[in-house]
Design a protein that fits this description.
Radius of gyration: 24 Å
Strand order of the largest sheet: 8-7-9-10-11
Distance between the termini: 45 Å
Number of strands: 16
Number of domains: 3
Strand content: 15-25%
Number of helices: 20
Shape: globular
Structural class: alpha/beta
Largest sheet: 5 strands, antiparallel
Helix content: 25-40%
């Protein structure tokens, strides 16, 4: 622990305290908070091309907004964003677009999300209560630095390959830029791994250098990643790099697996100094138990809903004394929920939200109209210029913080595999897999259901120690809760489900395949279901 780290943490908390206070007050009035936020957004952008087309100047109520602006998807916004990329101002927002941030979601084509100062403010209003609530509940977090990883490096820069020409910069160079200048610098002062790690393009070197900086901080207190598999893969790389890492810690040197660019070398090498005592400690501890290397890690924040929950037991095994806290629902386009007060309330000060009920019948509901047990698809209006935009994320109301709903992410809307009319949905498959694994008492490291490569049917690609022989039959029983699937199997249109065992590195192979398909690793969310065949070639023994 260093005095500088504690001071930086206290400064970070203090800077977010006003946002925390305002969010806490807003929780008591979700209807009024949301109405005022929408009014401000509409009035501010009435003079834009989009605002003029939809009559923003005449909108006075939520109902008028819903009447004049249709529900939309990315396809509706792509032509508007092309105009922004061509250099046109005042298209979707009065505020200038600072960056077009690439996002391919879980499996879809690349999108370029406009980021403005207003949207960065939206994000800070969600992060402030999350940060302050976390530190208030766990004061010892102030004693050490945190490791925050939003996205891995661009590697071979898939973002550039799929992007059309743009006069607006495409893609943030560093995670902290989501927050903006001052906030980026303040947050950076609390971190164990420097932002200059973004300059490393090779994944093996990226992991090596991330581990090197982490190993230099035995006082590490907080780990925040997106998908939990990112952390398990990082820790899994420790044994292979161990001898070189210990030597670099001892001598204050850099010996990554591949040669660094001159900017990366210059930025990182100057931050290192010899640590012979820490190196001796590392030699004694060895690489097999991360919890011993970082004994003060108290909180691990990562995705934990839907299919990501499959990876949480391994994270808990690596750090048994730490609390593993699932993140809220966060997308490139918007923050939907945040961990707060033991639940996941809507980020009501950040964006205007609507919810399309399961089945899509009737007027979309507002935040204050939701009830416990409701299942709906999320619609957002943001400071970045997305209006009534369907995130295609399904959520369920699992409680309230005051009158503000707390939501649980169920899965992507519309992610369906349909070979013969069975219509298997991602969220249904995730539930079927979870129930199957629980009943058989197995904890797979990786699981993916996908169309078989030969006869019509489905194959479960599974990495798990000694799965029981009845696994395929148990899974088929769970899938048969879908009457269309059951009928297709009974008619012989689909073969019963089968299992393809993966010997090792299922997650790593999945991520590498998605990267080769043009996705940024930070956008890839391992899913329970793929509608594509050909996975046996990816997971070949």
């Amino acid at each position: 622990m260093t005095t500088l780290t504690r001071l930086a943490n206290f400064a970070w908390i203090a800077a977010n305290s006003d946002g925390h206070r305002r969010f806490h007050a807003a929780l008591a009035d979700p209807e009024g908070t949301q109405r005022k936020l929408l009014e401000s957004t509409v009035q501010r952008n009435a003079g834009t091309a989009f605002g003029r087309m939809h009559g923003f100047a005449g909108i006075r109520t939520v109902e008028e907004f819903q009447e004049r602006v249709p529900l939309s998807t990315w396809e509706d916004y792509e032509p508007w964003v092309e105009r922004i990329a061509a250099g046109e101002a005042g298209v979707l927002t009065k505020a200038p677009v600072r960056i077009l941030e690439p996002s391919s979601g879980s499996s879809g084509p690349a999108k370029r999300i406009p980021y403005t100062a207003d949207l960065q403010g939206d994000i800070r209003r969600a992060i402030a209560p999350w940060v302050c609530d976390g530190y208030q509940r766990r004061p010892s977090l102030t004693r050490g630095p945190g490791y925050w990883s939003i996205t891995p490096p661009a590697l071979e820069d898939a973002r550039g390959k799929s992007s059309a020409p743009s006069k607006i910069p495409v893609g943030f160079e560093e995670d902290g830029e989501y927050l903006g200048g001052f906030w980026k610098r303040l947050a950076g002062a609390t971190l164990a791994v420097p932002g200059a790690i973004r300059l490393v393009r090779d994944m093996e070197s990226f992991r090596y250098l991330t581990l090197l900086f982490l190993l230099r901080r035995p006082d590490l207190a907080l780990i925040s990643v997106w998908h939990p598999s990112f952390l398990t893969l990082l820790m899994g790389a420790l044994p292979g790099f161990w001898d070189e890492l210990v030597q670099d810690v001892e001598h204050g040197t850099l010996t990554p697996p591949s040669r660094l660019s001159e900017p990366a070398w210059s930025a990182l090498a100057k931050l290192l100094s010899p640590q012979p005592d820490r190196a001796a400690e590392l030699c004694r501890l060895g690489p097999e138990a991360p919890a011993l290397l970082w004994p003060h890690v108290e909180l691990i924040s990562c995705w934990g809903d839907a299919h990501a929950a499959l990876h949480l037991p391994e994270v808990q095994r690596l750090f048994p004394a730490a609390e593993v806290q699932p993140k809220g629902l966060v997308a490139t386009e918007a923050f939907v929920t945040i961990p707060y007060a033991g639940r996941y309330p809507l980020a009501i000060r950040s964006h205007f939200f609507e919810f399309v009920p399961e089945g899509g019948d009737g007027r979309p509901r507002l935040a204050h109209e939701l009830e416990t047990g409701d299942v709906a698809s999320v619609v957002v209006t943001t400071g970045g210029g997305l209006y009534r935009y369907r995130l295609q994320d399904r959520v369920a109301v699992d409680g309230f913080v005051g009158p503000t709903p707390s939501l649980r992410f169920l899965g992507k809307e519309g992610h369906v595999s349909d070979l013969c009319g069975e219509k298997l949905h991602e969220s249904f498959v995730a539930g079927a897999l979870a129930r199957t694994f629980e009943s058989l008492r197995i904890s797979p490291r990786f699981a993916l259901l996908a169309p078989s490569d030969s006869a019509p049917g489905y194959t479960l690609y599974l990495e798990a120690p000694q799965p029981p022989p009845g696994l395929a039959a148990s899974l088929d029983t769970e899938l048969s809760a879908n009457p269309n699937y059951r009928l297709c199997v009974s008619l012989g249109q689909l073969a019963p489900a089968k299992v393809h065992l993966i010997d090792e590195n299922g997650v790593a192979r999945y991520l590498e395949h998605r990267r080769k398909c043009g996705q940024r690793l930070g956008d890839v969310k391992p899913l329970a279901l793929s509608s594509e065949s050909g996975w046996s070639r990816v997971f070949v023994h």
